């Protein structure tokens, strides 16, 4: 996702330490202390503008949500939504998804969401795909034994690659949808990209997999 540079983003983020964690490593193993209540933790890696994260937190008050995003110009858009809704069960991390092992203890997370991640189409960029084996190893490490990974995308190539990558990783697929919106799943919370791509007639793919 490419957005115009926002010179005010860094200051805005710094003004809201109640929602944006500046040093996530200090919370490793005790993320429950960052929230109003200690509850199961779900994280979204690459949260974009925050629509999915905010709506999930609204619908699921008994779950704590953490949004991970590397770009300041994007994280502030999610932060604005969180502040407007005053949600006690959301925290935001400004970091790279590959660093998650350093910020979460093994088994500390109950669910990982990957929504419309960059497909990194070129072969030389395969290692950057968020379902590449090194990322899967990270998710496996931080996920609880009963936790799972969920991926949504409109990119057929990334979806097929992810199925193969998960298979080679010996993951267990628990749900595969080749046309998610045709299911009319009442529990499906959409993202900004999901609505945009679906409106264009693109098929939305979803998978869920356990990694243990």
Folded structure, characterized:
The model has no long low-confidence stretch (mean pLDDT 93). The longest helix is centred in the middle third of the chain and has 14 residues. The protein is of the alpha/beta class and 212 residues long. It has an eight-stranded mixed sheet with strand order 1-4-3-2-5-6-8-7, with helices on both faces. It is globular, with a radius of gyration of 16 Å. Helix content is 30%, strand content 23%. Strand 3, helix 3 and strand 4 form a beta-alpha-beta unit. The chain starts with 8 loop residues before the first helix and ends with a strand. The chain has seven helices and eight strands.
> Largest sheet at a glance?
8 strands, mixed
Please trace the helix and strand order, writing H or E for each element: HEEHEHEHEHEHEHE
The percent range for helix content is 25-40%
Give the amount of beta strand, in percent. 15-25%
First-last Cα distance: 31 Å
Identify the strand order in the major beta sheet. 1-4-3-2-5-6-8-7
What is the count of helical runs? 7
Radius of gyration: 16 Å
Quaternary state of the chains: single chain
Q: Which parts are unreliable, with pLDDT below 50 for 5 consecutive residues or more?
A: none
Average pLDDT taken over every residue: 93
Question: How many runs of DSSP E, i.e. beta strands?
Answer: 8
User: How would the global form be characterised?
Assistant: globular
Structural class: alpha/beta
